[in-house]
Design goal:
4-stranded mixed sheet, alpha+beta, single chain, 17 helices
Length: 368
């Protein structure tokens, strides 16, 4: 936690001031006229706007991504790194600018009397895009790229803040990544409904079999799927589990869905869980109908075939969406979705190379 005595302020504000007051004056003095972009993008709770006092204990503080042209990054990158190491103030707004241990994956602010091991990353947009996403998005974003990139990675690339862009490439990349193309969006939404359809009857069936714990687990899984569906309906990228509920809470359109989810999680009896989930499904179905991505679907609950478990019939919404997909490459895809809809391994989803390999293995038709 914060033992510096410095007043907390959101990390994006801290980094904005750090660039304007500490980093840019050094750049302008030593490299006048150097074209660059400065931003706080990529991993970090502050990039999503979710940082707080707890966040300061690691990977938080005065930091930046500094983008140059590839030629300038190669020619001046080491000199800029050395300049900042020698000339940055030891503290900024009361927060240390030195991070320990240098070069580690996870680093924390620390005091130093020597050179500053700072967290100003000097790079170029293409290199950063490859590292963050697994592809260079400056040349366009393919269907494969969209599906092989977890929502968390896309949210990190399009979130945060750009403080200066004298090159233009970073802003152009973020604009290209801002939202799924409509047919990719339809496909991913359809696959999200299918995930709900796979288990929507199991809350009641597990309880009927005497497995109340199993019924609760399934209810929790379905709440997660509804939360991800809501973010997708809002045109947002679903983020990973730590921030999923926080991101979901920011959606004003999902207030009623959130109430259904809360009730389902707290309900003591399977019938109440199933009913509350159906409340959420109906509101999500109505939301999709308002978007006009597909012909309207009757968003009312119904029995699960001849069994006494109320469901929404989630597959109906998926079918309506898939029928509207015009892009033949998307239309030919198997109905399993983007990589983070069928892979739940942190090790895979945080390594673009692995995520893309998994996508290539199950989607040979869209291999790059």
């Amino acid at each position: 936690m914060n033992d510096t005595g410095a007043a907390f302020l959101p990390g994006l504000e801290l980094c904005r001031a750090f660039y304007a007051e500490a980093v840019r004056p050094l750049l302008d003095g030593a490299f006048p006229g150097l074209r660059h972009a400065a931003a706080r993008v990529g991993p970090g709770s502050e990039v999503l706007g979710f940082d707080g006092e707890r966040s300061v204990d690691h990977d938080w503080g005065p930091r930046l991504e500094l983008f140059l042209s590839p030629t300038d990054a190669q020619q001046h990158g080491a000199a800029i790194d050395a300049l900042l190491s020698q000339r940055l103030p030891k503290r900024f707004r009361g927060w240390p600018t030195h991070f320990e241990p240098p070069g580690a994956r996870v680093r924390s602010m620390a005091y130093t009397d020597g050179p500053v091991a700072h967290r100003v990353v000097v790079t170029d947009v293409g290199t950063w895009s490859q590292r963050q996403l697994g592809f260079d998005g400056r040349g366009g974003v393919t269907v494969f790229d969209w599906l092989a990139t977890p929502g968390q990675r896309l949210a990190e690339a399009t979130g945060g803040a750009v403080y200066h862009d004298g090159i233009g490439e970073l802003s152009a990349l973020r604009a290209a990544l801002a939202r799924y193309p409509d047919d990719v969006w339809r496909y991913i939404l359809a696959c999200q409904w299918l995930r709900i359809g796979e288990e929507e009857a199991f809350v009641g069936r597990a309880a009927e079999a005497g497995d109340d714990a199993g019924s609760r687990v399934v209810a929790g899984r379905l709440v997660r799927e509804v939360m991800r569906l809501s973010l997708l309906l809002a045109g947002r990228f679903p983020v990973y589990s730590k921030w999923l509920g926080t991101a979901f809470r920011t959606l004003p359109e999902a207030a009623g869905i959130a109430e259904g989810c809360r009730t389902a999680l707290a309900a003591e009896h399977a019938g109440a869980r199933q009913a509350a989930l159906c409340d959420a499904y109906e509101l999500a179905g109505e939301w999709q109908n308002r978007l006009g991505l597909a012909p309207p679907v009757d968003a009312t609950r119904r029995p699960y075939f001849d069994r006494p478990y109320p469901v929404i019939g989630a597959g109906r919404f998926a079918e309506a969406l898939l029928a509207e997909v015009a892009d033949p490459e998307v239309a030919a895809l198997p109905p399993v979705g983007a990589v983070d809809q069928y892979v739940d391994s942190t090790a895979a989803l945080t390594e673009p190379r692995l995520a893309r390999a998994l996508m290539a293995a199950v989607r040979p038709a869209v291999q790059p």
